[in-house]
Every structure is written in structure tokens, then in C-alpha cells.
Batch of 4 targets.
Target 1
Amino acid sequence: MDPETEILVIGGGAVGICSAHYLCELGCNVTVVEMGEICSGSSYGNAGLIVPSHSVPLAAPGVISKALKWMFNPDSPFYIKPRLNWDIISWLWKFRGACKARHVHQALPLIRDLSLNSVELFDELAVLDGIDFCYEKKGMLSVYKTQEGFEEGLEEARLLKDIGIEVDELKGEEVHGFEASVRPDVTGGVFYPQDAHLLPDRFVGELARHIEGKGVTILPSTEALGFETSDGKIERVHTTRGTFKVEQVVLSSGSWAPGIARELQIKLPIQPAKGYSVTFKRPSDGCPGRPVVLAESKVATTPMGDCLRFAGTLEMAGLDLSINQRRVKAILNAVPRYLTGVDPNELELLEIWRGLRPCTPDGLPFLGRAQRYKNLILAAGHAMIGISMSPITGKLVAQIATGTEPSFDISALRVERFN
């Protein structure tokens, strides 16, 4: 007899585990399947930033011209591996269409509200019994080396300030006075006090253990292979560990969601964007006291417990998990241009990591029920803010699954918006 579960969550990263947590809180019987280990994808080695400051979507005016300068340079913050592939061509065309001021002004309030609500939910998760994921609310500092970069940063900061995000502008040596690890010769900085940070793999892992103790079944090394459907519903899900009879399905498998959705004849324009991080043992001297973003280089520096992590780059090369050492070196080479007293060559290396972040053409995730199937909920495409938005996404998934009115108007995140 096939095992039964009320709700099957496909994907064991931050979004899937948070969805399972809030579904469990509402009394649902939940099973999570993950093709690798729990938190083995992009939730594992990212910068660990919780960022209301990142309320401007990836698709914005000016991004195309900047991307064209970068896209064929393997050392740049943004790189597209040259290849003839209709999916990436189609995605880029849709991305171009979304890089408009109107889209930004429509998306800003929604991302702001979701992000600020997520911070409140992180506050609640951080005090659950037996959970410690190095959660700290110390804000985030963006540092600018050039006048041009600083002016762009101020323009974005003032846009965020207009919608209620707290912003402090710092000029010249004020930045070094505020954060001693920053070189005194930087041009300026912007501090976002509402931001926070955590150790992402510990967050997902400890929340997964917590919900297992509450009755959620978690099955790692379990891959979704196919589906049985009838009358607009998914009846069964075939996996490498057998077939599950289901009442509802949540698809939250990040960059792998389009391949799974294809089995259900649903097209998700999500492109995997490879990001890298390099983690060192935290130095006793010179370590930043809070996250510092090296703005022009698009590198995030995050102190995490007894670690110090540098993360960055956006590399569109398909489902390619190879490590490009040029990209890693570009991240590390940026550090001494902004920070003083932190030399990656003198730190104890713990890990070089890469992961695939799921990017949609308009910079907004897919969240909601699919029209084709009454019992399928999509929650994927969070790009670089998957960790940041995982609690609120999980809570909204639980509300949708149980027929509760969602806390926010998420019509802009509908699954079929590109059809």
C-alpha cells in the first residue's frame, strides 16, 4: 500500500523546511522529500543575510547596460556562459522587459512588506527551544570605493527610504569610524539598521530537527520522479523511495523546480544562477562586527559565529555545479580593496562552496496555487533572498494550503504571470 501524507513538500532547503514548519503549526500532516541532504542546495553556503534593504528587484532600470559590460567577463560580478539555449534566450528577453521603473515601483512595497514580516518571524524562530542559528540583528553596511558607485548606492538608498526602509548615509572617514574594519579611504557607505544575519545551514538544519520532533517526516536522498494526476489534481507522487498518495503538494525545490514542474506540463521560467562563497575561521583581530557588502564588487562579507564568509557573483551557466577558480579569486581579490586588517591569504580556510540560486525574469518568486492543478502550490524563484524571505514564504504557503486568506496580496507572484 502506498504511504499517505496530507501535504508532500518537495525540496528541503530554507523555503521547504519553513513551509513544513508553518504547515505543522496549523496541524497538517507533512512529509518533506529532498533529493540530496537537507539544506544541500543554495540554502547551505550563502551569505546568510536577512535583507529588507534588498527590496529593489533584480530586474530594474540600468541593470541591462551594466550586465552587458559584465556578462562575457569571467571575472565580473555577473557572467553568462555563452551557449545556444532557447530557455536562457527566452529568460533574458523577459528579463529585459521587466527592467522598467514601473515594475520596480510596483514590486518595492511587496518585497518590503514580505521582508520586514520575515524579520519578525525570524525573531520568533530564534527563540524556539533548542534552536541556535547565530542570529544577530546588527544591520548591514554597504561600502563604496568610487564616487560613481556611491552615488548609485545613495540613489537606491533614497528610493528605499521613500518606502519606509531605515537608511543612514555615511561619507568618507565616517564609514571607518562606524566600522573599523573598513579602509579609511573609501568614498562612502550606506547602513541599513533593519537588516540581520545568521548561519544559514544551521538555521535550516536546526529548524528541520525541530519540526521532526513535532511529527514532520523528513526524507533526504529522495527524488521526485513523476506524478499521477486525475481531474486537475495530483493523486500520487513517484519518488526514489516509493509512491506517495497525497492531498496537496508544495513544490519548493529552487533551481530544480522547472524540471519537476515540466513533468506536470507547467513551464517555470527560472534560471539557475551560480553563486560562490569562501568561508574562513573567524580571525581574532580585524573581523567586521556586522555584515559589510563591498558594493561595486558585489561581494558580501558576513561574520557568522566562529566563521567569516565572503560570498558573491552571479554566473548563469545552467545546472552546472563546477567551481570556476577565477570566480573564487575575484571574490577574494575584492576584499583588501575595501577592508583593512582582513587578508584572505592569512586566514584559515574552512570551505569553498558554490550553489545555484533560482532567478525569475522579474526578480519576484513564484508563490501560489497553479491553475492546472487544484492541489499544487509553487514556492520557488527567490534568487538571492531565499533565506531572507523563507519564513514569510513558508507562512504564506501554510495559509494557502489551509484555505486561510494570505496575509499579503500576492497576486504579483502568481505562477502563470509569464504565460
Target 2
Amino acid sequence: MAELKKILYVEDEPDIQMIARVALENVGGFELCVCSSGTEALEKAAEFGPDLLLLDVMMPGMDGPTTLSELRKIPQLASTPVMFMTAKVQPQEVEYLKSLNVADVIAKPFDPMALANSIHDSWAKI
């Protein structure tokens, strides 16, 4: 797998966006495109050309699984690796998300200082 540099991050909560941006850009050194909705992700994803799609699960309008389904229809994103971030971490919920062919499910709240390493660790297993 190629080196992970660019992450398309979809999160509707501004506070979580800010914390994750600092964790991923400043601590992790990633180039980030932050989107506040699935609709915005569909508008920006192809042009940004992410190495990884990092999607919140619970969002108003278009949730994470629906956003993933729509992003998969964009030819250049059809095989881009995906990770979900969610507060819904009951075993059956995590099992369902993993059944969507994603690399990992990251629990919220997350440790900002460990987020980039968690993503790197999951990326190494792809």
C-alpha cells in the first residue's frame, strides 16, 4: 500500500473537526480536506484525491454508511480505503460497520495525541 498522506475527513461537529484537524495535521503530518457533511464530501472528494476516507457515522442528512456508498460510485474513489469514527461502539454496531469493507472503526471520543498513530497502525494492516 502507498504511503498515507491525504485524508478526506467528514465530520459534522465543529468541535470534533477542530480537535481532529490538530491531531491529524499538526501531530500526524497529514494533508486534510475537512467536510461537514456527506454532500460536501461528494463535492470535494474526487478533486482532493484522498488516500483515505475517514467518515463519521452519525451525521444529519446523509450518514457515514450512505456517504460511503455514494463515494464508492465515484470511479477514482471506488477502492480508496475507509475508516469510520463513531461513538456507537457496541459489538454489533462495529461488526456492521466492518461488514461494509472498511479498514477500521475508531471509537469516539478519541485520544487526540494517539489518533494519527491509530490511523497509521490501521493503514499498515491494509
Target 3
Amino acid sequence: MRQRLVAGGGVASGLFVVDAGSGKALCARAAKRPRILASNTKLFTTSAALTRFGPEYRIETELLTDGRIGFDGTLRGSLYLKGAGDPALGVPSFYDRYQGGLGTNLLSLRAQLREAGVRAVSGRLYADDTIFDRLRGVADSGYATSPYVGPLSGLAFDAGYRGSIGQGFASDPATLAASKLARALGAAGVSIRSQVARGLTPDGAQTLGSVRSPAMSRLVEATDVYSNNFFAEMLAKLLGAHFGAGGTTAAGTNVVERFARSVGSAIQAVDGSGLTRGNRASPYAVVRLLQGVRAGPVGDEFIQDLALTGHEGTVADRTGGTAAYGRCRTKTGTLTGVSALSGYCFNRSGRVMVFSILMNGVANLSLAHYEQDKIAALVASY
């Protein structure tokens, strides 16, 4: 295994393999030296989210009012679309096409408002995105929107795109979401101003309707299987909003670092997705994370939310014809000069193996993948 590691990743690479049952280390090379993680960072973000929120947790976006509904159906007051950090919020025409049907239908609020008896709104519709800060990206792009993620928002919409056919990114996702809802309300016979604005939901506002995200387990699965940067960064900010100092990337990564320590691991986390090269951990730390999560309350769910080799996501076309085919649940990672593969293998012998391959200094990505797959095959053959 060590020879294959060097062949695929050069000298700046590390490897650690453990028998999960006995805890015995079976192979190691530079196992405790931190490496650039790339998207293996998502293992830390998603395991923290799945554990802290629980697999069945759903993120609730609310439509509230500061007014009252008259006998004529006129809402005398304004509406507030209050974001809760749902990365899947959008419309079916977008998420059916780009997210495999995984989404939260914002337009379901239209029927709920009519069911509440509202036929006209005297005020306007405000977009409340204040659960998160308004930094649209992460450190690798100077916290601005980049081609790889963004724009992040507490009231995200269609993964940040400005159109349901994947046009360019929106400059302000929150007001775009509110505008889409206002137009939908108008088309449904609810008279409301088309112009929207950002605004903070007043204390004591009453809820008229809400939509809930898919379960956290499904959000985690989409994040890990398809290496979804947007979902990962939204989950990081959500962790910060609920369990840290606020809805920021910095607060979220602090929660992730604390979670890693709680299961005997460690990470230097700069963002939630791994886009920034400052995200670092050792193969030993990755394996410790995977062992700790497996032994915890969401272990089985977390493992199932990783991509099955040869069948799903970023490893759908890998490990064919080897012992690892269909027997490993894994997470990949790729940046310029960086390639990673970590996860669990379930061997025919009944043994469960935990491994992490972190290759830095990679000159040939195809060769790195080839050698990683051969290593995974050896792991699956123990």
C-alpha cells in the first residue's frame, strides 16, 4: 500500500488503515502529518451536522406577518419571509433538474397564505436573511461568490442561481426568493406589491405558513455523495448559527473543530467544503473521526450517506473489477495537486476497515485515482 501511495501521490502523501473491530493499525505512512484535505473536509462538516442536529431534523422557512387579516381578506400589515439557512430552498423546476428532486418548495407558501384567508396585502414582502452573515463565499475567493460555491445566504434560493435553468448567480438570493414568492402570490390572486426589500422580522410576528427542508440525513447524503460545496458551506454556517457564535463560516468551523475533538480527532477547518487549502488534517485524524462517528448515535446513517464505490456520486466510475467495488463507502477530495479518498470498507470476511488516503503534491490525477482504487482494493481484501 505504501508503495502505491508514493506512486500516485508523490512523497507529500499520507495513509492510515485500521481494523474497526480490533482497533489495530494495519498500514501507515506519515499518518500523523497534516495534509490539505480538499473535499475530505466535508466528512468533518457533515458528521458534525448529522450528530448535532440529528438525522430527522428539518430546516423551517417561515412566512410571518406583523399585521391582521380583515373580514375582506386584506392583510393590514406586511409579510416577512424568514430564512433559516435551508440550502435546498427553491422551486421544483430547478431542484428537479439539478438536485435530483431534492428540494424545499418555496411556492408551497402560496397555498398556505390563501388558506389563511389572505386575498390582499396592504404592506410589502420583506426578505429576512439575518440568520447568516452576508459573506457570499469562503476564504479561497476572499469571501465573495466564486464559480465553485455561492452565493451563500440565510435565505438561499435555487442554490444561489438567478434562474431555474442554472443561469448565473444572483447578487442577492434573499430578495430574489421574496420576489419569486411575491410574483407567485400575485398569480394566485393575492394582491401584493411586486417590489420587495430586505427586512428584519419583528418580535411577536405571527406565522402564516412554513416549508420544511428534507431531513438532515438527506442533506448530508447530497453533500457527501455528490461533493456539493454549496450544501457544505450552508451546513457550516447553520452549525455556527445554532451551536456557535453566529451564522458565519468562522463560527461554524469552530463548531466543527470542537466536534472533531469530542470524538478524538482534530482538524484545522477554514471552511465547510474544503475549497480553501488551509483545511488540514492527518490521515490518522480522518480515521479517528470516522471511527468516532461510527461508534456514535448516527454512525449507521452517516456511513449510508457516503458514496458507494462503483455505484454513486464521485466514485460511480471507480474501483471496477476490484475487491473494493460495491464494498466501500467513501468521500473523495480534489484540488490542484491534491487528491484524497477516505471511508469504510466492508469485507467479505465480515471485517470493517477504516482508511484515509491523503495525497498532496499530485501531478497526475488519473494516476492518483488509479493508485487509490488499488489501495482501497487491498483494504477491502484484508
Target 4
Amino acid sequence: MNRARIILQGVCKQFTGPNGSAIPAVDRVSLTVNDGEFISIIGPSGCGKTTLLNMIAGFERPSSGGITLDGKPVTGPGAERGVIFQEYGVFPWLNVRDNIAFGLSLRASRVPSSEHEQIVHRYVDLMGLRGFENAYPKTLSGGMKQRVALARAYAVRPQFLLMDEPFGALDAQTRTAMQDLLLHVLESEGKTVILITHSVDEALYLSSKVVVITARPARVRAVISVPFPYPRREEVRRQPSFADLQYSVMEMVMREYAAQQLQRPEVAQNETRQGVLV
């Protein structure tokens, strides 16, 4: 876990407002993601976290600064980076089996057709989807849809998982179950993960590092190493040291939330209308 894989150096991102003015979303963010790390990025709503993740994914380009992956500039999406969104990223016209197999025939991640069934079988079992292979998304619960989304992302064997609030729409019990499932899968598969979350508890439970982001424009306020060893189990949440760290991180996040609330409401309204800062 010492080899640097993704490096952000002085990354800035600006959008153009409705009156032509520049709206800063990300400001001089520098961050190193090492091989095998699980990094959670947390901060107030609208501070620019998703914009930051979109630049790492290659969906957006920085206005200045640079992002490299293994020393090469990130200029667009790549098969080595799997992205999972909060909205259940499954195709409603495909059943579970075909959703999982979807990426296996794409040029960027193609594998021989003779291997498709074996790969699908593995991730159906790993995600607890046995018996639902022929089910369509409209018949599945939110948690089941996210299991399908995770399975599809894993099936194409990305080196990185970029996750934007993937469990945010789930109820508390399902969210906890999905967190444990993710940890279980990572134990057997191993990935480098960047997770956007609003939950301090989730960030500390899953991550090796937590990056606290400021009120917009997004800057790195703190990078916190999480001291609890893997494999993680539910019992870690009952440790006094977990509660102490959770309180400390929550304090930082709430200060940034308060700072963001003090920003001019008309600016926030314009940015929300543009849908650029999330």
C-alpha cells in the first residue's frame, strides 16, 4: 500500500455561471492515493466532492493543475476505473445476469465470451444474488440493485472503484449490510477505492484514510489515517476510540457545513440551478 497510483497536484475546477462569472468548484487540491487504499472523501453538501471524483474518473477536466494515474495524465474515462453512482446504475431492460455481463463485451474491457458465464457466476454468488439471475431491476429492492451495480463494476476487473454515495438512498439496515458486503468483497478481491459519503460513521468504518473537504470551493482540510485494522467487523463501532474519532471528524465537517451556510444564498441558488457543485 505504499505505491502511489493516483496523484492530484494543485487541481482547480471552475464553471461558468449564468451571468458569465467564474464559479470555483475545486481549489488547489493535492492528494495522493496509494495502491490498495480505501479513501473516503467527506464534506458538506454542494462543496465540490462529486466534481472532484468526476475529474478522477475522467468525466471532467481540471481547469488547472493535473491528475495522473501511474504517472500518466488522466484525460478521460478508462477501464481501470469503475464508477458506481448513488442512483442505481443498472439497465432496466436487462436482467441481473445480463446487467453483470454487460461490460464484458465492450471494447475497453472485453474478455472472451467463453469466460462470461464463469465471471457472472462468481459475482452472482459473491453478491448474494443466486436465484435472481433472471430478475429485472423493477422487481428488486434498492439494496439488491446496488448489489447488481457492484457486481457489474467488479466483473470488468477494474483496479479502482470510484463510488459516489452508493448507499445514500438505502435504509439504515440495508446500508449497514451493504457496507459489510463491500468489505467482504474487498477482502477477497482487493481494490483501491475512493468513496464520496456524507456519513462520518461510514467513512471511518470502511476507510483506511478519510479526507475532509472544506466548504466550497473544495479544498483539503485534513487527511486522517484510520487506525482500526482490517478485516473490519461491526464490533469496531463499539470501541471508545471509534466514537472519539467520529466526534472529532464530525466537528470538522460541521464547521465546514456552517461556513458553507454563511456563503451568499444567491450564489448558492445560482450554482444549484446550474447543477455543477455536488
